[in-house]
Amino acid sequence: MAGIKWVLASDIDGTLVGHGGEGELAQFLADHGEIGVVYLTGRTRANATSLIQSYGFPEPLALATDIGADVFWGPDLQADEAWAFQQRREWAPRRIMRALETVDGVSYQGRSSHWRIAYGVRDYPALSAARTRLVQEGLACRTLWDEEESRLDVVPRGALKGRALKHILARLNLRTQQCFVAGDAENDGDLLQGRWRGVLVANGSIDLKEHLPAVIWRSPFEGAYGVLDGLRQFLEEPIMMEREYVG
């Protein structure tokens, strides 16, 4: 933490990686040691760590995996057990699987981690029926719909990237105005709701673009180039930024 003045809190897939510019962004962060990085991803810890290292991105101040269900601290990636306990209190994967096993048009695909249950969904009526069944059963969970893959993921209700980031910044004793967020997808929505300044990269969700607050920059560049574009603007305006968030 010594020397950290700013924090980049970013999604990984589609934002930091996948659209070019990864090397340029990694070099920029290496040249600016005053910027710490918090990674927030739907990936597991092992997958996320491997990807971060393969592109030469900085070691994390913290890593939030499974869309914020787990938090790991520092380069040693020590698990935040208190945070995980909060998720476990309401998480009932067996009840979820029992609730959905008789829904027509919904097929179990497996579990990529303890915190995520995946289903193939035949059509929109089946999607609606699955979500309705979960509500009827009183299950504390969220659903994430991937239209391209016709896949429905069920995750803990508290698995939110923005919620995890708020917890991380509080633990690191960092202020709201020191943080800059970056994302591209629907599950980055609570990162980009305006609590922090940030950027939506050009390949981001069209639905997100239409509902972003003014403090979120819509970059004309995709992926890591878009993050770099947003970061440069953020760092050029620290005084304006602090005024904007005072109080």
Characteristic key phrases:
eight-stranded mixed beta sheet; alpha/beta; 12 strands; four-stranded antiparallel beta sheet; 35% helix; Rossmann fold
Say what the CATH topology of the largest domain is: Rossmann fold
Average pLDDT taken over every residue = 92
Determine the strand fraction and express it as a percent band: 15-25%
* Shape designation: globular
Order of strands, main sheet, comes to 5-4-3-2-1-10-11-12
Binned, the helix content reads 25-40%
| Number of helices in the DSSP assignment | 9
Strands, total number: 12
Question: Quick one: biggest sheet?
Answer: 8 strands, mixed
* H/E topology pattern: EHEHEEEHHEEHEEHEEHEHH
Computed structural class: alpha/beta
**In angstroms, what separates the terminal alpha carbons?**
25 Å
Counted up, domains total: 2
Uncertain regions spanning at least 5 consecutive residues: 238-247
By CATH's scheme, which homologous superfamily of the largest domain applies? HAD superfamily/HAD-like
Rg, please?
18 Å
CATH class label of the largest domain: Alpha Beta
- CATH architecture verdict of the largest domain: 3-Layer(aba) Sandwich
